[in-house]
Design a protein that fits this description.
1 helix, 20 strands, 6-stranded antiparallel sheet, Chondroitinase Ac, Chain A, domain 3, 2 domains, Immunoglobulin-like, mainly beta
Length: 251
């Protein structure tokens, strides 16, 4: 049972900030902020959302019109971290039958190991790679920004689900379209390769980095404006396939 739908931490900076649900038998929703992720303390809010009110429009593959199984909002909205943070989200399995329950106790019929985490970009849900802990009924994602995060049933992904929706990035304008996100890659053994238009290697992005490109080369310098190529492998319909495309960098 949820004790409250919101909790606030003043001057949050480093450490774990939790949202207790009143049930010691399972885990809890929380945010872990590492050192040097923030330049100054923030007024951190974690809000549990009514899953029925969460936008179904723009839901991830195969979930159009379906309710989120669990949803949380993390504020201040738009906060960007210099280092990846961890967001852990609680889901419910009140009778411990391995099937996810909605917060009102009704069963979704979805197996708990068949969940995927998503974040709301203001227009649609973006798939975030994640890890599931069935012993604590939690799903953990690594990210560099706050938003609304939700859990949906996992569905078969296609190439368009992995491609960055940011076709143009402006890395010289911090916190405004400055990063291209390669969806659904976090938690996988990914390798994203960035090339310039002449085919010269600009950067390799591998774990423990997050699957995103901030317009910088291997030396941490911003690249010149222009069109850049990306290439990576992902599992599509049970097979590993190469996905490629372009991103435009504008300053």
């Amino acid at each position: 049972m949820i004790l409250s739908n919101e909790i606030t931490y003043e001057k949050a900076s480093v450490g774990e900030y939790s949202f207790p649900d009143g049930n010691p038998a399972d885990g809890f929703t929380s945010v872990f902020i590492p050192e040097e992720a923030l330049s100054h303390p923030i007024l951190l809010k974690i809000r549990h959302l009514d899953n029925g009110s969460v936008h179904a429009r723009g839901a991830p593959a195969g979930n159009a019109g379906k309710r989120a199984l669990s949803a949380y909002e993390f504020e201040p909205e738009g906060t960007v971290f210099a280092r990846p943070i961890e967001i852990r989200m609680l889901y419910y399995d009140f009778d411990n039958d391995g099937l996810v329950d909605f917060p009102d106790g009704t069963s979704s019929g979805i197996k708990e190991n068949n969940l995927q985490a998503c974040w709301w970009d203001g227009f649609s849900w973006r798939i975030s790679g994640s890890s599931i802990d069935v012993s604590s009924n939690t799903v953990t994602v690594k990210t560099t920004h706050f938003s609304i995060y939700a859990l949906f049933p996992k569905e078969t992904l296609f190439a368009q689900n992995y491609r960055p929706k940011e076709r143009t990035i402006t890395p010289a304008s911090p916190q405004f379209n400055d990063v291209a996100h390669f969806d659904a890659q976090e938690g996988n053994d990914f390798k994203i390769m960035i090339y310039d238009i002449e085919g010269r290697k600009v950067r390799d992005i591998l774990p423990p980095q997050l699957p995103q490109w901030d317009g910088k080369d291997e030396h941490g310098s911003f690249v010149e404006s222009g069109v850049y190529l990306y290439q990576f492998e992902a599992e599509i319909e049970g097979r590993r396939k190469t996905i490629s495309g372009t991103i435009t960098v504008a300053k």
